[in-house]
Write a structure and sequence with these properties.
Layout: E1 4-9, E2 15-17, E3 21-28, H1 29-32, E4 39-50, E5 58-64, E6 67-75, E7 78-82, E8 87-90, E9 95-99, E10 104-110, H2 112-117, E11 119-129, E12 140-144, E13 151-153, E14 159-165, E15 167-168, E16 171-172, E17 181-188, E18 193-196, E19 203-210, E20 213-215, E21 219-221, E22 225-229, E23 236-240, E24 244-251, E25 259-261, E26 264-266, H3 269-280
Antiparallel strand pairs: 1-22, 2-3, 3-4, 4-11, 5-10, 6-9, 6-11, 7-8, 7-10, 9-12, 13-14, 14-17, 15-16, 17-24, 18-23, 19-22, 19-24, 20-21, 20-23, 25-26
Length: 292
């Protein structure tokens, strides 16, 4: 089995993104460097109850360049719109994969229906780096509905894997990715074990959303912690001490410099300065349609 590099707690306390998402950053490029590549960060909004409201909470119009955002909704509803004209609402089990590429403006708000009714919101947002050759690719948006995400039962009906991206047991996820990776929503029943083979050479990070779990028969990780594994050495295994929910990520590392300034992720400081200038000059377009 692959050796564990470390088990890392999320920083405390949680922080607000806009007025709609209270998140903890479970890992980031700044904290984990190259061992996280191609992933840049993971924000997790733990389950939170919202009262009905006429004001739609969330994050107003803001820019991105040079990477992708992946939003996974476990509970609640999130509405997206962007400067390409794309948009939509995602609910429980759905995901969206937005490629910022050369530059995009977007907005993420609680959906109208969720705002009216209130209820429980739980979601995660993953930032995925783009290699230098694709930093300035055309922006695009992928809606990944729950019905289109394959579900594979773990052997012996010990849990299941939802394949958002990549491949598991012959099931291929619907997300089109710029570099090879797996993004799996893993559930393991209490007392059961799930073992997973992943490509040799991949970086592997596993965020424990519900736990605790025993890792490879010896390590332990609780809810809110992230496990980082070595790139070689075989499979990884998790035994659920309570019903477990994991976000399992593996990907071929992008061996390039990372330069980040807020919502822009490039390879050099000069490219960051250009991104900021392009945004301020209006070259990222505009959002004109009403929110969905």
């Amino acid at each position: 089995m692959r050796k564990i590099i470390g088990v890392y707690p999320a920083p405390e306390p949680a922080h607000w993104v806009g007025d709609g998402f209270q998140v903890r950053t479970l890992f980031s490029h700044h904290s984990h460097g190259g061992s996280a590549s191609p992933f840049l960060l993971l924000d997790y909004a733990e389950p939170m109850e919202f009262l009905p409201a006429s004001h739609r909470r969330g994050v107003g119009v803001h820019p991105h360049r040079g990477f992708e955002t992946v939003t996974i909704v476990y509970d609640g509803g999130v509405a997206h719109r962007d400067s390409t004209g794309a948009g939509g609402v995602i609910g429980p089990g759905d995901a969206q994969w937005m490629t910022a590429g050369a530059g995009i403006l977007h907005e993420e708000l609680h959906s109208e229906a969720f705002s009216r009714s209130g209820g429980r919101l739980e979601m995660a947002q993953l930032w995925v780096n783009l290699p230098a050759r694709l930093k300035m690719t055309s922006p695009r948006y992928q809606t990944l509905h729950d019905a289109d995400i394959p579900r594979v039962d773990l052997e012996g009906e010990r849990g299941l894997v939802r394949v958002i991206a990549g491949e598991y047991a012959g099931a291929v996820g619907p997300a089109q990715t710029a570099t090879p990776m797996n993004v799996w929503d893993v559930r393991i029943d209490e007392g059961e074990t799930g073992a997973f083979s992943l490509p040799e050479g991949d970086n592997i990070l596993v965020a424990v959303l519900n736990g605790p779990v025993v890792v490879n028969g010896e390590g332990h990780a609780r809810a809110g912690e992230t496990i980082v594994f070595e790139r070689y050495g075989g499979e990884v295994a998790f035994t659920a001490q309570a019903a477990a929910k994991l976000l399992l990520l593996s990907g071929a590392p992008i061996d390039e410099p990372v330069a980040q300034e807020g919502p822009f992720v490039m390879n050099t400081r000069d490219e960051l300065r250009q991104a900021i200038d392009d945004y301020r000059s209006g070259r990222f377009g505009a959002i004109t349609p009403p929110a969905g």
